[in-house]
Amino acid sequence: MTRIPEQALYTAAQVRELDRRAIEDAGIGGYPLMCRAGEAAFRRLRFFWPGGSGRLLVLTGPGNNGGDGYVIARLALEAELPVTLVSAVDSDRLGGDAARARDDWLRAGGEISNFQEQLPGDTGLIVDALLGTGLARPPEGQIATLVNLANAHPAPVFAVDCPTGLDADTGQLLGDVVRASHTSTFVGRKRGLHTGQARAVCGRVHFERLDIPDAVYQGMTPTAFLIERQAVAACLRPRSPVAHKGRHGHVVVLGGDHGMGGAGIMAAEAALRAGAGRVSLLTRTEHVSAALARAPSLLVQGIRRPAQARATLATADVLVVGPGLGQGAWGRRLWRLALDSGRPLVLDADGLNLLARDGRRPPAGSILTPHPGEAGRLLSQSPAELEADRFAAVTALAERYQATVVLKGAGSLIAEPQGVTHVCDAGNAGMAVAGMGDILAGIAGGLRAQGLPEGEAAWVATWLHATAGDLAAREQGQRGLQAPDLLPAVQRLVNPAGERR
């Protein structure tokens, strides 16, 4: 798959190096690059604030992020928009390109307002140009106060490069953080803007490449990639006209202990909707009727003694283990049979909890799909420790278990051992309900059974799942969304447009 900077994700340090290359090696120059950033941000904010209702309030701090703010304010002044610039620091202390941007603002007729205890009441849009991507500690003093004033004001906030107070590498909130409606980020996408708590404070993230030539990016290896629709479509190749069910794989789902039958049923149906040729569900006997009523295409077997599962496991291409499995004797025995089978696994829910207790590595080609709590148990960390750096956590899990790992949550991360990390920026808060993980596990199992390598199966499944959630929420709303509501959209998404005619 061809990679282009629009999908590439970098650390803040890498983007600073890209800045240096653009300025020095490509000969763009520091101040022209700052002007490009300010111009791109101004165009973007005018698109989302076309009427210019109220006053544009630009909050500036030290360094080049503040310099970008001066450029934006000058462009607003030249466009005859009402604009006020508030500096959180003594503007005389600015140096380099930021000082030049300040001087151009003053020459254009602008004024600098010093720190204020309240923001102008007629403000229609706030521009956050206080602190950039180099922040390593919570905002302090006047900057922290302005952050809180901006958050308390009814006007929307447009963040320049990165919301003040956000760690651009991890997505962790460092303290008081600006809560933006939109963020324009420059030169390279910062990976921390797309996962974890960043999803609550960045709003819509817009990448502004600033016409940087391709040569600047050569030799700079991104730390991750956003999943793009075209890449997903490339993995979902049209089927042969002479295909038969045996060519599309056999998924076996193990789960559904007493009182948890729905989890296994949802995972099995998701594998069917993802395109698996056959799906068997091994579950408690009391759940057989419900499973067949829900999805008659399933091959359902009631399991009283785990040894009854051996024959079916021997015919499987992939096993989905964990949805509603439980951690009692019945679930533990089925889990051991699955691991001993040597078949690739998709481990979710109690399959992961049992893995954390046992410590064994799953068979080669397996996929783990933990939420932060399950991931924390697998790494012997608290969820808070894990969420402090989701990229480090997913990489550690992939290496420890030598499996592809989907770390679920806002901005799910998918890592392969010694491989590529992907980030899914689809999905919505309506998906924070029971059963969504069962659907994801089933989709991953269905794709794996059809022959996708484990890495592709994991990130394609994650994107399909999240995008189906967005489509379902668009039709039905987020509140009250249920996991099975995703299944019709999943089926539409796995079929290229030409196949649906």
Automatic annotation (TrEMBL):
Residues 228-497 form the YjeF C-terminal domain. (6S)-NADPHX binds at residues 64-68, 132-138, 161, 263, 324, 371, 438. K(+) binds at N65, D128, T164. Its EC number is 4.2.1.136, 5.1.99.6. Binds 1 potassium ion per subunit. InterPro entries: CARKD, Nnr, Ribokinase-like, YjeF_N_dom, YjeF_N_dom_sf. Its cofactor is Mg(2+); K(+). GO terms for biological process: metabolite repair; nicotinamide nucleotide metabolic process. The keyword Nucleotide-binding applies. Bifunctional enzyme that catalyzes the epimerization of the S- and R-forms of NAD(P)HX and the dehydration of the S-form of NAD(P)HX at the expense of ADP, which is converted to AMP. This allows the repair of both epimers of NAD(P)HX, a damaged form of NAD(P)H that is a result of enzymatic or heat-dependent hydration. Catalyzes the epimerization of the S- and R-forms of NAD(P)HX, a damaged form of NAD(P)H that is a result of enzymatic or heat-dependent hydration. This is a prerequisite for the S-specific NAD(P)H-hydrate dehydratase to allow the repair of both epimers of NAD(P)HX. Belongs to the NnrE/AIBP family. Belongs to the NnrD/CARKD family. Homotetramer. This is Bifunctional NAD(P)H-hydrate repair enzyme. It comes from Natronospira elongata.
